[in-house]
Amino acid sequence: MQHTVKAPIRFEGVGLHSGAPVTLTIQPASAEHGIWFRRIDLDGTDTMVPARWDAVKQSPLCTRLVNAAGVEVSTVEHVMAALIGCGVHNALIDVTGPEVPILDGSAVPFVRAILARGLRNQRVPVRAIEILEVVEVRRGDAWARLSPADTLRMDFHIEFSDAAIGRQDKSMTLSNGAFVRELSDSRTFCRQSDVDAMRAQGLALGGTLDNAVVVDGDMVLSPGGLRHRDEAVRHKMLDAMGDLALAGAPILGHYEGHRAGHAVTNDLLRALFAQPQAFRMVTCDGAQTARLPGVGVTHREIPAPV
């Protein structure tokens, strides 16, 4: 069945790139509503922004949504990953600025609060996107692919010159609570040289060593080091999870990403929906529902703080 949150959930923080204070509140929504953002700091315009693949205005640094009136909400990938990873299908997300708060740089603060508040069963069946044919996109050395599978599976590969990251590969099935257990606490990461370049462009103004993993060569500069030896590739999978959530329904398929970022995953969704023969919408039966992300997950599966 579809689910929404039982009651509003409020978060306060700063935008990663703007550095500006922002409040975000996840509100319950009716069945079939889907996920929408609402800019409650604006008047006199359309403040509703759909969490949908065709509302993405591509950016190399984050996932940015823009409606027909030009109203935007950016850096949505972590909260979107948390929602789908916890099995939330319907929500209205009120935000007081153009960027979602970065919190600790991962999805786990959202996950922790969602599971603490609990979900409401809406007694309407979940529909999912079943992948029927292989769809692939490429941008230079980066590529991403969707192929048939009976649940959401993910393979990811990254490679960086910095020895603190290097080459990392990870494969996993994302059914049930796997996202919460394995990926939700992995933080965004960057190289010190990237930080310097972004700040020179007026970006990453809200970034700190407490909400991002910053590396320089073979050194991890963030206090406490890594939460996982392969935290970087886990975070890339977290981002992909959030970007795939913009399909508007859970995906039953195998996602493979090679050096893929936000834009490549959005390219993949655009290619998928341009090929109607490559997918079909299915009303999930009991067996399919049991394999979806977030089904049966509890707060006990949240990684312990480090």
Automatic annotation (TrEMBL):
<keyword id="KW-0479">Metal-binding</keyword>
<protein>
    <recommendedName>
        <fullName>UDP-3-O-acyl-N-acetylglucosamine deacetylase</fullName>
        <ecNumber>3.5.1.108</ecNumber>
    </recommendedName>
</protein>
<keyword id="KW-0862">Zinc</keyword>
<keyword id="KW-0443">Lipid metabolism</keyword>
<keyword id="KW-0808">Transferase</keyword>
<feature type="binding site">
    <location>
        <position position="239"/>
    </location>
    <ligand>
        <name>Zn(2+)</name>
    </ligand>
</feature>
<dbReference type="InterPro" id="IPR015870">
    <property type="entry name" value="UDP-acyl_N-AcGlcN_deAcase_N"/>
</dbReference>
<dbReference type="GO" id="GO:0009245">
    <property type="term" value="P:lipid A biosynthetic process"/>
</dbReference>
<dbReference type="GO" id="GO:0103117">
    <property type="term" value="F:UDP-3-O-acyl-N-acetylglucosamine deacetylase activity"/>
</dbReference>
<dbReference type="InterPro" id="IPR020568">
    <property type="entry name" value="Ribosomal_Su5_D2-typ_SF"/>
</dbReference>
<keyword id="KW-0012">Acyltransferase</keyword>
<feature type="binding site">
    <location>
        <position position="78"/>
    </location>
    <ligand>
        <name>Zn(2+)</name>
    </ligand>
</feature>
<keyword id="KW-0444">Lipid biosynthesis</keyword>
<feature type="active site" description="Proton donor">
    <location>
        <position position="262"/>
    </location>
</feature>
<dbReference type="GO" id="GO:0046872">
    <property type="term" value="F:metal ion binding"/>
</dbReference>
<comment type="function">
    <text>Catalyzes the hydrolysis of UDP-3-O-myristoyl-N-acetylglucosamine to form UDP-3-O-myristoylglucosamine and acetate, the committed step in lipid A biosynthesis.</text>
</comment>
<dbReference type="InterPro" id="IPR011334">
    <property type="entry name" value="UDP-acyl_GlcNac_deAcase_C"/>
</dbReference>
<keyword id="KW-0378">Hydrolase</keyword>
<comment type="pathway">
    <text>Glycolipid biosynthesis; lipid IV(A) biosynthesis; lipid IV(A) from (3R)-3-hydroxytetradecanoyl-[acyl-carrier-protein] and UDP-N-acetyl-alpha-D-glucosamine: step 2/6.</text>
</comment>
<dbReference type="GO" id="GO:0016746">
    <property type="term" value="F:acyltransferase activity"/>
</dbReference>
<feature type="binding site">
    <location>
        <position position="235"/>
    </location>
    <ligand>
        <name>Zn(2+)</name>
    </ligand>
</feature>
<dbReference type="InterPro" id="IPR004463">
    <property type="entry name" value="UDP-acyl_GlcNac_deAcase"/>
</dbReference>
<dbReference type="GO" id="GO:0016020">
    <property type="term" value="C:membrane"/>
</dbReference>
<dbReference type="Pfam" id="PF03331">
    <property type="entry name" value="LpxC"/>
</dbReference>
<comment type="similarity">
    <text>Belongs to the LpxC family.</text>
</comment>
<keyword id="KW-0441">Lipid A biosynthesis</keyword>
